[in-house]
Design brief:
The chain is α/β, with parallel strands linked by helices and 267 residues long. It contains 8 helices and 7 strands.
Length: 267
């Protein structure tokens, strides 16, 4: 690695993985550490966060684990406080937490709706609320919010799609509010990633169809999202803010008819 984040301190909310497959948050925490950052690995399940820390430590990186409910203000403050106490500063905040409920507006309960919005959207507000004052002192900082292509396309989950669309708007608003304070705010829109949340409900046929849905015709992993996060966290993106970056193999540019045509072609 090229030490692109050397001397920086990062918080990754959602740094654990719910299975054996490396997810977006875990991959991001690992790559941040490989690039020289000291990383606070936060997750709702401390054992998962610690597993990521152990992977980072095995490679010689620096990280610590913390159990955090990012929908809770006190927990978000504790997450920021730990970063400042342990490492003395905050340069990067990666908001990578998300949950989903498969329901439309007729099926979703009020409790389900509120929970998805709290975890997926309010968490970004709360984490940023406590991190930004420290970031103002540092300057040259980066907040990365994880949205989804589902925020721009129907996804069989109205609460999830709505929350991910809200993240795009929230990102742009925050970018405008805090740019003059030396804080860049961008978001990543992952496509049909094969990760710990999706893998349990997939067979090979579903994976093939998902691959064929994108222009590149290849499968994405958490490492693809993490590579984009490293770029947005680094000084290489110093002149980029308010951007919603699809990491989706070209899924958003495809129509159903184009997907079928490409799937039938031999290259």
């Amino acid at each position: 690695m090229s030490a692109r984040l050397k001397g920086k301190v990062a918080i990754v909310a959602g740094a654990g993985a719910s299975g054996t497959i490396v997810g977006n948050g875990q991959a991001t925490a690992i790559l941040f550490a490989r690039e020289g950052a000291e990383v606070v690995c936060a997750d709702a399940v401390e054992k998962r966060a610690q597993a990521t820390v152990d992977m980072i430590a095995k490679e010689g990186g620096s990280a610590c684990a913390l159990r955090v409910d990012v929908s809770n203000a006190a927990d978000c403050k504790a997450m920021v406080d730990l970063a400042l106490e342990r490492y003395g500063r905050i340069d990067i905040l990666d908001n990578n937490v998300g949950i989903s409920v498969r329901a439309d507006v007729l099926e979703v309960t009020e409790e389900q709706w509120d929970r998805v919005m709290a975890v997926n959207v309010k968490s970004i507000v709360l984490a940023s609320k406590y991190a930004i004052p420290a970031m103002r002192k540092t300057g040259g900082c980066s907040i990365i919010n994880i949205s989804s292509v589902a925020g721009l396309r129907a996804n069989q989950s109205t609460p999830y799609s709505t929350s991910k669309a809200a993240i795009v708007g929230l990102t742009r608003s925050m970018a405008g509010d805090h740019g003059r304070e030396g804080i860049r705010v961008n978001c990543i829109l992952p496509g049909l990633i094969y990760g710990p949340m999706t893998a349990p409900r997939m067979d090979e046929d579903i994976r093939r169809k998902r691959r064929e849905a994108g222009a590149l015709g290849t499968e994405g992993t958490g490492w693809d999202v993490a590579n984009a996060a490293v770029f947005l966290a680094s000084d290489e993106s110093r002149w980029i803010t308010g951007v919603a970056l699809p990491v989706d193999a070209g899924f958003l540019v495809m129509s159903p008819t184009t997907s079928v045509r490409l799937a039938q072609q031999k290259f």
